[in-house]
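User: For my dataset I need records formatted as: sequence, then structure tokens, nothing else. Please produce one.
Assistant:
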Amino acid sequence: MHKYWFSLFLMLPLCTFSQTVKPKIKDWHYLDYQKDGYMGISLNQAYELLKGRKSEPVIVAVIDSGIDTLQPDLQPVLWKNPKEIPNNGIDDDGNGLIDDYHGWNYLGAANGENLAISVSDIYRTYHRFKQQFENKKQKDIPDSLQWQYREWKRAGEKLDSKYAEANKNINLIRKNWEVLSETNKLMIQLLKKDVFNNTDLDSIVLNKNNSELVGLWRNVFRGQEFNNQAFLKDYENYKKELEEDIIKKTTPPSRARDSLLNNNGYDITTTHYGNHNLTTHSGYHGTSVSSIIGAVRNNGKGIDGIADNVQIMVLRGILGKDEFDKDVALSIRYAVDHGAKVINMSFGKYVSPDKRWTDEAIEYALSKDVIVVHATGNDATDIDKDTHYPNGYTIANKKLPNFINVGASGDPSSGDWIAPFSNYGKKTVDVFAPGSYIHCAIAGDGTQTADGTSLASPVVAGIAALLRSYFPKLTAVEVIDIIKNSGTTITEKVNKPGSNTEKVYLSELCDSGRIVNAAAAVKMAIER
């Protein structure tokens, strides 16, 4: 055994867990703070206020990775295109898209095959404009290309930063990986099992031949409840990520999307592409997001969604890493043209070369009285300073009043009032909503608990749908105003995301300074 192993493993990335002041419970985000002691959205109280009122069905479009269309808690609430006959191979409604019965997939080929590879837009944008912009100054760039030049510069800076960080760490990480691989084999021989965890180490009788080996893996586990195989997988992925960051600076990405779809992702004029396969390579993300908004309530299955009279329109426009602006813009326009009154977008990125297309699509949604709800991202970043897209401001810095940007709140039971991973911004983030330890459905017929602003956004979309369903005369802008101004204010300072020591008021993290509350929103709607 090498003595330096211990010092190497002291530098391995580790997960940490916060102390809780009360137990974590499923569905805490529906509860009421005054009644239940959890900073949820007071959903039961909202429905008490709505008793005796009639509702209208509301179409909510979910632009995401796709969905399991057979998920039993979602299948009954899926939107059905009234002018389209499913699976007959004919464009019945004449919109240029064949069999778009539950929505449309902008990341699929005409033969039904779906895209399974995604590439960061930082990577794409840098190489897309490198030859055009390299060695040029801003004054040399025509006005029509100023935005793309700006985004190219930002992409280059981010790529350079990742390249430098990867170069700095890769040798140590590779050494660690060699040690992990070698000692993992020895531990498997010692324990006579392929998968082991910290508890298994207690069963080993220590002697001079194994004490250093066991001590090394105790240092790896640090008492955490993960196993060797999970740790190895995560660490190998981290190593691969660093290696990719090194080659990205010099090697252009593949054009996998354009090749499979036979469509140019940088040409907004070609709009009839994709397929109706909403499930293949959809993963769990779109299913979970949709379930929070509108999973069938009170059916004894899975979870209860927030809104009780919704139809979920599915638009597959993202995959893993950064979306193409074109796919998002066309998804928004499809949703608007087919009757959606709320659009949820639980995705985002830090470079958007074709932002004007999404700006125009959101403005189109505004003209048709449609709300757009967006997740702020999970990097504990001030997005007033490091812009995260799409956002509520156009390239010309015009405010889009039908757009609401959502950060993730929590509860002391799951760490703090504000999720430590959530992006924030006094100007560009509008509200916070529960996004930590959220119970949601998954593909198949199961459920899970998960974290992310991706889950906070559909909480707000669900409240927006609830208001639009029971108060159909309210405009999109009025609904957003109600959601922002009816939320709960935290009077004490909260941990600033990304910091364990810095405390700030919630009003320093978002424009409204509030966490959304469904009951308060319903009460305000009643009083209007």
